[in-house]
Amino acid sequence: MERSNHLPYLLDTLETLILTPSPSGMTHHAEHLLMETLKGLGLSPWQSNKRAVFCKLNQGEGAGILLSAHIDTLGLMVRAIKQNGRLRITQVGSYPLPYVEQENVTVWTRAGESIPGTLRMNQPAAHANRKLGTDERSDENMEVVLDMRVSTVEETAALGICAGDFISLDPRFVRSGQGFIKSRHLDDKASAAVLLTLARAFATGEAACARPVYILFTNFEEIGHGASAGHPAGISDMIAVDMGVVGDDLLTDEYKVSICAKDSHGPYNHALTTALVNTAVAYGLHYAVDIYPYYGSDTNAALEAGYDYRHALIGPGVSASHGYERVHEDGLWNTFALLNAYLKNQ
Question: Are 22 and 69 in contact (CB under 8 A)?
Answer without folding.
Answer: no
